[in-house]
Amino acid sequence: MASRMSSAMWSQRFQRSAESNISLQGQIRQMLVAAILDGQMSLDTALPSSRELADQLSVARNTVVLAYQQLVEEGYLISRERSGHFVNPAMLEGRHGFVPPQTVAANEAVGRPDWTQRIARLPSLQRNIVKQASWQNYEFPFIYGQFDQTLFPTSDWRECCMKALSVMEIRNWAPDLIERDDDTLIQQIRTRVLPRRGVFAMPDEIVVTMGAQQALYLIADLLANERTTIGFENPGYPDARNIFLNRHAPLLPLPVDEGGVRPVADAHLLAQCDYVYVTPSHQCPTTATLLLERRHALLELAQKHDFVVIEDDYESENNFSGAPHPALKSLDTADRVLYVGSLSKSFAPGLRLGYVVGPRDLIRELRALRRLMVRHPAAYIQRAFATFLALGHHDALLRRLAFAYKERAEALKAALDIHLPEVRHVRITGGSSCWVEGPLWLDATRLAAEAEAHGILIELGSVFFMEGLEQRQCFRMGFSAIKLEKIEPGVRALAALVRAQCPQA
To answer: What's the pTM?
Structure first.
C-alpha cells in the first residue's frame, strides 16, 4: 500500500492571496505544479486526499477535487484507483535526478571562459534611464511612461482579446507568419492611425515591430556603422542613443531649444550627417514641438546634403493644445524620412507594438532582418489590437488621455509656478512629462536621491545628454502615473528639498 503525503506541509506552501486575480483552484494548481517541477514530491507517495488538503487549506473540498482533475488532464498527476493521486513520472523526464554542479569559487574556476573579455561591448554599462521597479509604492511618482490603471480601458481590451480567441480568429493568427504581419493590423495602421498624422502608405511600406525601440534597433542594425555619422538631438532619447552607439556610429550633437532642433542655425552640422534622428512631435525629453518652418528647412537640407531623417514620432498621439503639426513624413516628397511610431506607449507600454513606415525596398529588408530576431511580433496581440482600433476604442482612449493629461499638466505647471519659481520649465503642449531646468547651483542627482527618501520620484536629466555635455541641474517630471490630487503636494515637498540646496539657504 502506498504511503500518503502529509497535508500539513501544504499550509506553509499555499500563499493564499485575496488580491490575486487567480481563482483558489488556480492557486492550488500553481502550488502543486511548482512542487512537482521542483522535485519536492516523491513519485511513490500519494498526495493528501481531497478532503484532507481542503481541511488543511481551509477551502471547499470541491475546489481541491477540480484542481486534482485538471492536473490529471494536463498530465502532471496520475490517478490510481483506491490509492489516490501520484506525480506522473513522465512530467519529470529530463528533470528527475538532476544534480546541479557544485559551486566553484571564482579563483578555482580553472578553464572557464572569461565573459568580460569575450563580450566586445557591455550593454549593462550604458547610461540608461533608471526607474524604480516599486514606483507604485511611492506617494509622488513623477515618472514618465508608466501605466495608469485608472485610465486603462479594461473592458474594451478584454472584449478585443476575447474576439481574437474565437475559433475563426485563431485560425488567422495561430500559424507562423514568418516575415508577414497581421493583414488587419496593417490595414488599420494605414486607414486609422497614419492619416491622423497626414501620412499615407501602402501595405508593403509598413512593418510592425515590438515597440518603437525595436524599430530603431532594426534601422540601426541595417543602416548604421562606424562610417555613418548620425545627427542626434542633445538632450535626446538615451535608448536611441545607445542603439546607434552599439553600431559604433559617430553621433553629432544637435542643440535643441523651445522650437526643437535648429536646421538653419546648425546647417553646418547637418551637412556632415548621413542620418539625422529627431523627435519632432514632442522632443525627448524637453517636449518641445519642432516648428513648421524648421520642418521644411530640415527636409530641404536633407535633399541638399543627401542625408536621411529618422523621425521618431514620440508621443504624437498625446496632444492637447490644438491641432498637431503634420509629421515630417507627411511633408516628405523624396523618401527622405523613415517614420517610426508606437501603438502601445500611451495605451499599455507592456504590449510592445510599434511600426516603421518607409520605402518598400527598405521595408522588405527590415522584415528580413526582423525574421532573424523574432520572426514577427505576437500575432495574437496584433489581431487583438487591430480589433481595438477597428472598434474605435483607441480613438476614444486617446480622447480620454488628452483630457486627463491636460488636466495634470496644468496642475503641474501651476504648482511649479507657485512653489518653484526659481526653476525654468518648458511649456507643456502635449505628451506626459515636463522638462525642468533648475538654477546652476542645483545638483539634480542629490535632489533625486533626497526626494526618493521622501516618497518623491523624479528622473535625472543628465542621462539625456551626450557624455561630456551633461547638465547636472536638469530633471524630468512625468505625470502619466501620478494622481491629480497628488501633484501639488508633491511639488511643494520637492520645492523644500530644492531650497535646502540653495547656497543662500
So the answer is: 0.80
Cell 542645483, located at residue: 442
CA nearest neighbour of 256 among 232, 222, 240, 230: 232
Alpha helices in 14-81 (DSSP H): 24-37, 50-57, 61-73
- Measured distance CA(234)–CA(219) in Å, rounded: 20
Amino acid at 481: A
> What span, in angstroms and rounded, lies between the C-alpha atoms of 174 and 221?
29
Read off φ and ψ for residue 328, nearest 5 degrees.
-55, -40
Count the Cβ atoms, other than its own, within 10 Å of residue 191. 12
Q: 78-122 pLDDT, tens per residue? A: 888 878 888 888 877 765 454 444 544 554 556 788 888 888 888
| CA distances for 121 relative to 124, 247, 248, angstroms | 9, 10, 10
Closest CA relative to residue 424, chosen from 474, 495, 479: 474
Tens-place pLDDT, residues 125-155? 888 888 888 888 899 999 988 878 888 899 9
Band of pLDDT at residue 47, cut at 50, 70 and 90: confident
Cell 523624396 locates to 334
C-alpha angle with apex 239: 328 to 445, nearest 5 degrees?
120
- What is the residue extent of each domain of the chain? 3-92, 132-151+396-501, 154-392
Contact present, 355 and 189 (Cβ < 8 Å): yes
Q: Which CATH class is domain 3-92?
A: mainly alpha
- CATH architecture of structural domain 132-151+396-501: Alpha-Beta Complex (3.90)
Q: Which three cell numbers stand for residue 111?
A: 578553464
Alpha-carbon gap, residue 164 to 173, rounded angstroms: 8
Domain 154-392 has CATH 3.40.50.970: no
Q: Which residue has the cell 492550488?
A: 28
- Measure the CA angle with vertex 246, ends 245 and 247; round to 5°: 85
